[in-house]
Amino acid sequence: MKICIGTDHAGIDVKDELKAYLEAKGHQVKDFGAYEKVSCDYTDYAFTVAEAVANGEYERGILVCSTGVGMSIAANKVKGIRAALVRDKETAELTRQHNDSNILVISGKFTPVKDAEEIADVWLNTAFSGDERHIRRISKITKYEEKQL
């Protein structure tokens, strides 16, 4: 799968480990940074990854920051993005099945690397259910986005 990944300074270790893990599993991963543990703004990376997913350049995106909250908020400002902050495998599965999330957000501070790898595996390997009620709800989000612009 074609994936892009990004982080601020607080998530570099998790991002780097996760990138290597995903590449070893055969995924094509584009790393949008950050590359150094120097204070930077999470918004820059959230917008870059979200825009790359929204415009179809990448199938899915993964973002990491200290708590994951800032990345989630910023990424979800991009039209067409459904970013989900996930801390366990069950939520990873449900956010794909029910919400067709296209960006996974992970906390670099509260999610150990091994857990991040397992979460990413579940998230990447779970399909959207296609259930009518979930399609209806996602359509409402899309329609709301359209009228906001």
Provide a descriptive summary of the structure in words.
With 149 residues, the protein is an alpha/beta fold. The protein has six helices and five strands; from the N terminus they run βαβαβαβαβαα. The chain has helices at residues 12-24, 42-54, 69-75, 89-99, 113-125, 132-148, and strands spanning 2-7, 28-31, 60-65, 83-85, 103-107. It has a five-stranded parallel beta sheet with strand order 2-1-3-5-4, sandwiched between helices. α1 links the parallel β1 (2-7) and β2. The longest helix has 17 residues, at 132-148. The protein is globular and about 40 Å long. The mean pLDDT is 97.
Fraction of residues in helix: 40-55%
Number of helices: 6
Q: Going across the major beta sheet, what is the strand order?
A: 2-1-3-5-4
β-strand number: 5
Estimate the mean pLDDT confidence.
Answer: 97
> How much of the sequence is in beta strands?
15-25%
Cα distance spanning the termini:
31 Å
Largest beta-sheet characterization:
5 strands, parallel
The sequence of SSEs as H and E is EHEHEHEHEHH
Q: Which outline best applies?
A: globular
SSE-based structural type? alpha/beta
CA radius of gyration is 14 Å
Low-confidence stretches: none
